[in-house]
Amino acid sequence: MSYTNNSLCQGTGSQFIHTVEIRSLPQGRITDPVQDTSPYNKLTNSWNFSMTAVKKWLKQPIKGVLLDITGVLYESGEGFGTAIPGSVDAVARLRKAGIPVRFVTNETCATQADVVKKLRHHNFSLSEADIFSPVPAVISILKNQGLVPHILVHPAIELEFKDMVTGTPTCVVIGDADEAFSFANMNAAFRVLKTMEKPKLFALGYGKYYKHKDQLQLDVGAFANALEFACDIKSEVVGKPCLSFFSAALSDIGITPEEAVMIGDDIVSDVGGAQKCGIRGVLVRTGKYTDSCENHPTVKPDFIANNLLEAVDMIIEAHDNTFL
Fold first, then answer.
1. What is the pLDDT of residue 94?
2. Is residue 188 within 8 Å of 157, Cβ to Cβ?
3. Span 144-154, average pLDDT
4. Cis bond leading into 169, ω under 30°?
């Protein structure tokens, strides 16, 4: 896997505006198309969709699927976490149908080798080459630009940077450091940035929060924002929701954005980021999903599925009908 596109997403009050008219109803109920005059019912504060609208997101042939990992394939927790019911079968069905799959994740609490080990434990079939994550991408960028990083990352991935942390830092790299997000460590990163004439901060993803051990907890975006505020700078985001990150996965498959679908549990980074790139974005009601995601002020998913398997069932049915 290679990352040759070094264009980055400047971080990120960016708004992802992509208006569509597609929603699923809970429990897969479809409304009568004759009675549907508006997709949003103000009285019930809910979305209603005709069969035609539900199928609209499948009209363009799907030649590749991008999947988030945590919250879509499995729930993180002690040890290897827990596979989400139906997710192993969903990935297997995509492969059997001949639809290429790539795993596009902002995971920075484990190396790619450890992520593969974890997923294989749950019987997912994949290799490191199938995974696109921020750590290899930022290391490639640092090498190409000749930068020396001060790192604030999870202890599990510190060794990935061991050959680069030499001499005076010329940038700061911040990932999901988990318990390492202490005042002392944040203040050290702040002080390093303040010594630079032109401070450069790389954020490995820009999520607000994620779900871990059945609880929501702050993600790297919240801590990157603190450093941005204190230093009056903007992060250069490596990972979702940036175009270059999605583009690397599409290029690896050999398809255009219009031929792909991204499935994730993050309304902004997964769905909004994909849609901004021209990729259809499907939200799943697993992982860190909350009801408020369905009423996001700017990001409107092309479809909302109860879980990955439900979305994949629809994709494969449409694929089979397309290539009959």
1. 97
2. no
3. 96
4. no
Residue with tokens 């001499």: 167
What is the C-alpha separation between 145 and 270, in angstroms, rounded?
Answer: 28
Q: Are 269 and 107 in contact (CB under 8 A)?
A: no
Residue 103: phi and psi, rounded to 5, are: -105, 110
Q: What percent of the chain has pLDDT over 90?
A: 74
Helix or strand (DSSP H, E) at 304: strand 303-305
Mapped to the 3 state alphabet, what secondary structure does 69-116 carry?
Answer: CECCCEECCCCCCEECCCHHHHHHHHHHCCCCEEEECCCCCCCHHHHH
pLDDT in tens, 251-292: 999 999 999 999 999 999 999 999 999 999 999 999 999 999
Farthest CA pair distance, the chain: 69
Is residue 50 within 8 Å of residue 36, measured between CB atoms? yes
pLDDT at 256: 98
Cβ-Cβ contacts under 8 Å for 163 (sequence gap 6 or more): none
Q: Report whether 73 contacts 83 (CB < 8 A).
A: yes
Q: What is the pLDDT of residue 1?
A: 45
Give the position of tokens 């005076």. Answer: 168
CA distance 316 to 40: 28
Gap between the Cα atoms of 90 and 259, Å rounded: 19
Instruction: Please say if the pLDDT value at position 21 is more than 90.
Output: no
